Amino acid sequence: MTLKLGVIGTGAIGQEHIRRCSKVLQGATVVAVSDINLEGARAALTRLGLQAEVYANGHDVVNSPDVDALLVTSWDPTHEEYTLAAIAAGKPVFCEKPLAMTAEGCRRVVDAEMKFGKRLVQVGFMRPYDVGYRALKKVITDGEIGEPLMLHCAHRNPTVPESYTTDMAITSTLIHELDVLRWLTNDDYKTVQVVFPRVTSKSHARLKDPQIVLFETQKGIRIDVEIFVNCAYGYDIQCEVVGEEGIARLPEPSAVQMRKSAQLSTSILTDWKDRFIDAYDVELQAFINDISNGTLTGPSAWDGYAASVAADACLKAQESGAIEPVTLPPRPAFYDKA
Ligand SMILES: NC(=O)c1ccc[n+]([C@@H]2O[C@H](COP(=O)([O-])OP(=O)(O)OC[C@H]3O[C@@H](n4cnc5c(N)ncnc54)[C@H](O)[C@@H]3O)[C@@H](O)[C@H]2O)c1
Ligand SMILES: O[C@H]1[C@H](O)[C@@H](O)[C@H](O)[C@@H](O)[C@H]1O
Q1: How confident is the prediction for the chain on average, in pLDDT?
Q2: How many angstroms separate the alpha carbon of residue 72 from the centre of ligand 1?
Q3: What EC number(s) would the UniProt record show (predicted)?
């Protein structure tokens, strides 16, 4: 049976996900879309050569009898509302990160899902589906470098628009590390501090860039993450795990090595769309397959909540400059993995 999807938000990643669900993946078709920019939504469908019902209001997509499941790919502050609406309609929903703007908002989603009694939410944390991160996790869990002691990470974007503010470095960018590093180390955060280096001249008035975020985990691992969203040179994700017996590094995306004009070079990607293209395919195919198998298994509303608990502490640490506690309540049995 083909799963009929409704997509709310037809901007950059909305269009990417519509394309992959319609043209790359198996078992789903996009039957309805919505965007506050209606013309943009229509133009996106035309560009992709697709036909779907276009609604002015996202809630009409959620409640359409033609729609079996939702993809929420609109702006960050709209995610909670549409995800709660999908749960109220009893429909599975893939919600792009962050699940909500605060831990409190994520908790409302968790509570609504638990009240419904069955998992309906997958959060768009794609890095656990990335082949490089999976290989890195295997090295760690196989004990090849001994117990992890330190992680050195970087999340660099070439540039961001003026609408991107200091807090978004946490809620929209670091949120990926907040999820994937918990998954990678099988650990939770205990404290966090945010340090601001000299600001790049390429930044905007409302953005302090770069930032360094320092964590201590419950097991005592120390993690530093550099967030640098106007790094200029490319889209670059780094993760190095220092263990008791050795060091493991996230593989670079494969690229052709060139020898030319007395230079040895490999190119660096510039766009998240390309860096994680395979991971997005795998995460959404898993969502589609899991729905037909009756149980969602991907990043859960609890994972979205856990990341946002840490994000709230990071926001506090941005303001205070102090070391702030990260307090995650115990995970309800509802979210135990099968
Ligand atoms: N997982 C990832 O790596 C990844 C990558 C990019 C974006 N994202 C997330 O996806 C979301 C979209 O990001 P984007 O880069 O595509 O942004 P974008 O600005 O290109 O697109 C967002 C779209 O949402 C629409 N929109 C805003 N409010 C709406 C509402 N109430 N109802 C319907 N549509 C609405 C906007 O008009 C716009 O077309 C963001 O939450 C972002 O954090 C995730
Ligand atoms: O929404 C995007 C997306 O999540 C990218 O993966 C991240 O690198 C960007 O910083 C963020 O703004």
Answers
A1: 98
A2: 8
A3: 1.1.1.18
